[in-house]
Amino acid sequence: MKDQNIEDPEGSAISRRRLVKYAGLGATLVAASPLATGNAAWAEGDPERWSENRGDSRNRVWRAGDHHVHSEYSGEFDTSTNPPKFSKGADAVYPIVTNAIMAKYFGLSWAMCTDHGGPTHSKVNLEQAYPDLLRSRVLVPEVLQFWGMEFDAPALDHHTLMIPHHADEARQLFELESRFAKHDAFPADPGRDTEAKMVEFLKTAKGMRQKPLVIAHHAARSATGLGVYGQDTPREFRNGNNAAPEIYVGFEGAPGHQAGPLNGGARGGYGNHPTYGGFDQMTARVGGLWDSLLGEGRRWWITATSDSHVHWTRGGSDFWPGEYSKTHVLARQDYADIMDGLRNGRIWVGTGDLITSLDVTASTQGRSATTGETLTVSRRNRTDVDIEIRFRPLEGKNANGDHPEVRRVDLITGQVTGPSSNLDADTNPTTKVVARFGPRDWRRSGREYVIRHTLRNVEGDFYARVRGTSTDEAEPLADGKESPWEDLWFYSNPVFVQYR
Fold this sequence. Notes:
Layout: E1 5-7, E2 13-15, H1 16-23, H2 25-32, H3 40-52, E3 61-69, E4 76-78, E5 85-87, H4 96-105, E6 110-113, H5 121-139, E7 144-151, E8 159-163, H6 169-180, H7 195-206, E9 213-216, H8 234-243, E10 248-254, H9 281-284, H10 289-295, E11 301-304, E12 325-331, H11 335-343, E13 347-351, E14 355-364, E15 367-370, E16 374-377, E17 383-393, E18 408-415, E19 432-437, E20 443-445, E21 448-458, E22 462-469, E23 489-492, E24 495-499
Parallel strand pairs: 3-6, 6-7, 9-10, 10-11, 16-24
Antiparallel strand pairs: 1-2, 3-12, 4-5, 7-8, 8-9, 12-13, 13-23, 14-15, 14-17, 17-21, 18-19, 18-22, 20-21, 22-23, 22-24
């Protein structure tokens, strides 16, 4: 790819190669800063003051973030010694503060380092990584930086474990990782790698005063075919969500490693069965697993992340946090409210900055609800429900120097029929694209485009969700080696309508 210019938020321009070099300053900043050797207790208290001073805290707006980013603390362990010896930088190479700098540069309001576990990694997190996070929070206060990890989920693939921001956050993560992460025990304990242990972990998290969040990573990366799942299965998602519905809330709709094709690899690292438009098959297939879960009435949300380890310009398969994928949460610039938005589905996701805001509203009988919410209406035999879609196109250029344009928006609905007796179910036959809209179907309203559509004679509980694309594909196609910048999509989370 050419050494193109990218506009920074202050209006100046730097080249892509200079940007990569600029990111390397992160480690130097930490080492050189007087805060690097400052008092940890002082640093721990400071981020709350920063968040309280950022703008009008009364108003919620869409705030982009990334809950799956790796730092140099995704390292390796020498298990020939007891205890094992940890070395930084084996799998991911950037200091925590470098990730925060780049997250800020690419427009993120919040982020989270989610480093891999391993034997006795809980002590590494507590004694080494956490102090670096505290320094990064002081150095880059514009980005709210959550504490957590890429949890070695028992019997499953990796998951986000996001800890609420509070005075004992480090101790809370240590307790959960040391007790439940399947690789933390040394010597190894096979008893940790069971679904029963995963459910025990979720129930323990549910009982905590400060309630964490758990979100599955690259859920179908180990799948060998369409609907032929690997480490993560529909049954495990249902059992976990049943055990702790306010803790275990979703999976990555768009996994990270999206820059793989730029170095000859597969998007997402999905080498067995591909992604579709950059999205996991569990999300991308209309009427598939995600719709099956929503059709049971589950509040099960999707996100989009970078899974950044090594930038593609350095031979990796990754974009920087926020460079390509973003998870937008409707929230104040406040740790608790962002976490509340993630927990309650006030989320839409997108790639390549195809759009910068997305609002989906369902209304009837003088009531309305938006993304993540439930519209409750009086029982009638038949009711019309109005759907309004508002989106804001990108006004400038994205990180690739492109000005992408939305070519189509789809409205998707599915019936909500209650819990399924089949824990392995992965389809919802009632889900369909009920309307497709092109540029002639939306109108301009200020800086936004508006689409309105009426669902006629609705009889039962249902949900509505929206997706859009820069392509002319009726359905997202299986991904090959095309540039990810030429295949952009956005997805809303659902709004529910229930009759009482």
